[in-house]
Amino acid sequence: MIIIKMEVLTNDEKCMKKLLALSLMMAALLPVLIPVMAEGDGEDLYLPIKEFIDIRYDAIASVEATSGSFRTMEMKSVSADAKVFLRIETLLLSSEIAALNAASEDLSYKDYAVNVDYSNPVFSQKGRAEVYASVVCRFHYTQTPDIVSEYGLIYRFDLSKADNGKWEIVGRSYPGIFESGFWEDETPSYEKAIERSRVILEAIDSRTVIKEPVNDYTEIYSNNLKGNVTYSSTAKDNAANTAKNYVAPDDPTNWTSGSGYTYSYPSGYSQVTLDCTNFVSFCLNYSSGGNIPEDNTGTYK
SS3 string of 241-266? Predict the structure, then answer.
């Protein structure tokens, strides 16, 4: 006698089997649907970014840059786009260092530390990637070694995989004050970098007012810090006293850099309580403060 075993499934069991089958099918499709990063690409992607950041921040810290600042990276580069990018960066960095050196004060760092957090790469197409890097620099100025200073920037890096399989930087965003003004909202190019670098360096060397508007940063260095405009020590003291009168640390026992602060303003000034740049501008401009004239362009006054 042959006994045939019949399996009767309830509705719930049928549903569970369908879900299990669907899950197995999706698991099989995942390697196809999700881009897979080749082994080693994760680390390789960040290597050129780290090298770039190290070179740039070291130059800013020492206030020294030469035409060879990015030369090592350029010599290792394979693609023409990567080489052009690094030549652009050399011109930009040299211009920024020249502006910093034009100041009467020593703007070098006694020491500094950079912390970088990377985003996961986004692969727009084969051999192309986009990575965001959040960079925080904590440092002491050489002339004020007891005061801790800190600033942060978020960069977008565009990378391309070269013929040798290595990732190279071929473009980036320009979030810094000087570098964003350097391009004047135009698309970065080697030709534009040569032109802007020439105008900035000539303006700094001649110590004259720049006829062609470059950006606020270079105008400040070429016109004010080179000796064309000076302010009395009284104006400086009044600006400093204004800052003390209108700021309070969140922790009254801690006035060191790095603690939270709350800014206040008299009537007539924008109430931007968390914007330290706006607060400094207010202290310099306030009639009972530095009383230094400022323009009214921009978001705040």
Answer: HHHHHCEEECCCCCCCECECEEECCC
Residue whose C-alpha is closest to residue 41's, from 120, 114, 115, 116: 120
Residue 223 contacts residue 209 (beta carbons within 8 Å): yes
Residues making up the chain, counted from first to last: 301
- pLDDT bin (cut points 50, 70, 90) of residue 254 is low
Q: What is the DSSP letter of 174?
A: -
Contact yes or no for 217/250 (Cβ under 8 A): no
Residues pairing with 138 in the sheet: 113, 150
Cross-strand partners of 122: 130
Dump pLDDT digits (tens) for 82-128.
999 999 999 999 999 998 888 778 899 999 999 999 999 999 888 99
CA distance 301 to 289: 15
Cβ–Cβ < 8 Å for 277, 298: no
What is the value of pTM for the model shown? 0.61
Q: Which structure tokens are listed for 87?
A: 């030549």
